Amino acid sequence: MNSIHYRTYGTGQPVMLIHGFPESGATWDNIIPALSKNFTCIVPDLPGSGKSALEQPCTLEEMAQSLKSVLDELKISKIVLAGHSMGGYVALAFCKLYPEMIAGLSLVHSTVWADDEEKKNNRRKAIEIIKQGGKRHFLNQVIPGLFADSFIEANPNTIEAQQTKANELTEEGLVNFYEAMIQREDFTETLKKFNFPLQWVLGAEDKLISVKKIVPLTYVSPINYVHIYDGCGHMSMYEAPRLLTKDLEHFLRAIYQ
């Protein structure tokens, strides 16, 4: 099992903030200062990102097991997970493995669907590009697609900074993330079995996740909190940090108080 580097901030009831692709725990840095005033924020780098080395290839379930080891080290037995994009897939795997530990789940620009064949093929093509030395060009094309067009136009420095951060990830780590996502299972039916609150954070201008397709899922599990941000793409921690912080805090307070 891969070891995990993580940071903790604040005091109070815990929330683990799980980053997506191609990111590290730093993607939550705009959210942590305000959220950690009232809650303990645990911010891991998944294997192959940030300060967590990819010691061996791993699935989303094995990433979830590594996160469990962090919580064991911190002696935390009940947790709210907030997973952004791929981080949501890891969080869902965690929910399947350790349902007794889940107080609530926030899916931030994430889905419960497995990849269809078209998506799998696109990921395989990306893997080949990365393996052939095209990492930088590929990531520099991917990053703008995560943001709403209006945000890209108004914030070119943020886009450039995200491209720089993404390129810090190793080729091996990027490939492993893609291969893990290709293998992930579908959690649509599992939603019916969730006995904890579920939060959905959606961007009205998300180019990766269709709000119209996701909204029907928000009625499946027993308790749902749904937030749709106008003018926002896939990255509300940059595009709408105040809104995201407020909604995460409201969700955490509803669960813990």
Give me the secondary-structure topology.
Layout: E1 5-9, E2 14-18, H1 32-35, E3 40-45, H2 60-73, E4 79-84, H3 86-97, E5 102-108, H4 117-131, H5 135-142, H6 149-154, H7 156-166, H8 171-182, E6 198-203, H9 211-214, E7 224-229, H10 236-239, H11 241-256
Parallel strand pairs: 2-3, 2-4, 4-5, 5-6, 6-7
Antiparallel strand pairs: 1-3
Helix pairs in contact: 2-3, 4-8
Overall description:
The mean pLDDT is 96. It contains eleven helices and seven strands. Helix 4 (117-131) runs antiparallel to helix 8 (171-182). It is α/β, with parallel strands linked by helices and 257 residues long. The chain has helices at residues 32-35, 60-73, 86-97, 117-131, 135-142, 149-154, 156-166, 171-182, 211-214, 236-239, 241-256, and strands at residues 5-9, 14-18, 40-45, 79-84, 102-108, 198-203, 224-229. The protein has a seven-stranded mixed beta sheet, with helices on both faces.
Number of helices: 11
β-strand number:
7
Number of domains: 1
Structural class: alpha/beta
Which terms summarize this structure?
257 residues; alpha/beta; Rossmann fold; 7 strands; globular
The gist of it:
With 257 residues, this protein is α/β, with parallel strands linked by helices. Helix content is 41%, strand content 16%.
